[in-house]
Amino acid sequence: MSSMAAQCPISEHESVLARIIRDYFCSPDRQCQVLAGIAVLEQSGHNDRLYYLKSGSMAAYYQETDSSHPVLVFQVEAGMFFGVHSFFAGTFKASTTVIAQTDCELAWIDISTKAVNEDTYGSLSAQFMPVMVSELSKRQQRASLKAVANAQSQQKLFRAEQMTTLGQLAAGIAHELNNAVGVIDSKAQRLQDTLSSWLATYQPDAQPFFDVGLSQGQGVSSSEARSRGRTFEKQHGLSSNKARLLARALPQDADINVWLADLDNALHFWEQGRELHDLQIAAQHAVSIVRSVKQLGGADHERNEHVDINDTLQKSLSLLQGAIRGVTVTQTFGDLPLLVGSSTEFVQIWVNLIKNATEALVDTPSPNIDIYTFTSKGWLIVTIANNGPVIEESVRRKIFQPNFTTRKGGLSFGLGLGLSIVQRLVNEYNGSIAVKSDADITTFRVRLPLGE
To answer: Start and end of every Cyclic nucleotide-binding domain (predicted)?
Structure first.
């Protein structure tokens, strides 16, 4: 690293971030150049600095154990910060290894840096609160987009009937994403604890507004916010922007006068809470996606697990929670012994049968799916029934044939595997699958031998 100076222009109407950059990251004594390939931070190493990347690109990696492969957690681009947690949480211990991907220009503050204009802007932590929330939001947004892209990739593979290949790819993707998403999820929770503790100590009057944003996010629809905003603008003489923001923030049963007493401060801390709320929701969603992908994409399909069939059904329903929204699903699970096999294969079977039932219910006024599990005379039996249209006899005779598909009579098997593959998997466990259908109910019945 070598020292360098930089110009830091000041705009007339500068933002909070622009002021922070000007006040803290323009000192020539705290700037340097970093060559590509140089590690600025080492995971678990000492760090008492908050870095600001002026130009270039860096990457942060997390390694679970000494023998595991480093996982790319996030990219650091120009205008972003890193070292946020170790600096403000006071651990002074880097949680990731950060390496320059290109030649970079860096600026930093350290633990000896004093707050600038503390009487006006508050302590160092208070001034940097928007930076902390914004920085983690940027990283989480990127991780969420990556998780969604991977989920979409899985759907394409399903349609191509490449279940074996899908299993291998999904396992690899989930392995790469799991640590990254887990770190973001835990850091979001830790950031919430840190900010809540700080507010309780230093700005207790602001904490209720922060808590509203954190617990509720934006509690009203956009149309409702516009309508309320116009009312607030007329009644209280507010600018349209502030009125609209207050309309988004103010709970229906809240006293508006409490907010109006110091509106700028109230809205500021509500926005910080809302940003963290959105960050946590996105993190939880990403974790759910990764878990679903991991369940579908086992590293192999060796049939040597002791499998809880009820548990595989629950995991299948979790995976399909978006598809079954609006459908009443009744689960009546018996006390079942464990089967030796592959949990991944059983999840594949149930996902396809439940998805098939869901698609058959598109035009049904009160859609229902009933799932039963029980044992009888040496067999474990699973039935998945729906109240959709009847499947005609001519269709029932063909639905287990390879490449057979139809949308007539309510049958719509859309995952791309085909009932023939479901039947093949069941047969490989020395089981059987059958379908019955009439005007009231369609039932798929799977029988699996209990073994010795």
So the answer is: 36-110
